[in-house]
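The freezer alarm interrupted the setup, so I double-checked each line after restarting. Inputs confirmed:
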Amino acid sequence: MRLVTYANDMAARYEEAEFAALDGLAVFRAMGPPTGYAEGAGLGDFTVAARGDHIIGFCFTQVPEGIVWWLGVVPDERRRGVGHLLIESAARATRVAGGTHLLAEPEDAPAARAFFQALGFRERGLRDLLIRR
Ligand SMILES: CC(C)(COP(=O)(O)OP(=O)(O)OC[C@H]1O[C@@H](n2cnc3c(N)ncnc32)[C@H](O)[C@@H]1OP(=O)(O)O)[C@@H](O)C(=O)NCCC(=O)NCCS
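Predicted 3D structure, all chains:
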């Protein structure tokens, strides 16, 4: 497995991974596809985890603010540390850009909350997700 900076010519492989990783998440059902991230190279820190030709995970982070906007690992590759590596990569990119925090807004899903808590994130407030179509 290797971490790679996303390039827009990975769009087809990215969208396959995005669907596999996020299908079932309320925000993904409400938004997409297409979510627009497939064209997101260079707009923030956008790192993907690749195994062979497949994208198995992705993380898009706004830097230097450290806002983790879009994170997923395909189901078959979960619990192997891929998400952890992606967040550590986002942390490095944020630090290099001069930021001091990472901020994540996980859905109210036990896995995502447990994941962020295991990585040291703590609840600092609650927000509602509002979407206008
Ligand atoms: C959340 C997500 C990215 C985690 O990716 P992952 O690669 O499986 O995470 P890791 O293997 O790096 O997990 C690191 C630690 O987080 C915790 N963790 C991860 N998934 C967990 C789960 N389902 N239940 C409980 N704890 C969990 C564990 O402590 C784990 O360490 P361990 O496996 O040694 O016990 C992945 O489950 C996912 O893509 N979920 C759907 C999309 C999503 O919710 N994205 C985040 C929204 S912002």
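Quick read of the result. Residues 21-22, 25, 71-73, 78-84, 104, 106-107, 109, 111-112, 114-115, 118 surround coenzyme A (CB under 6 Å).
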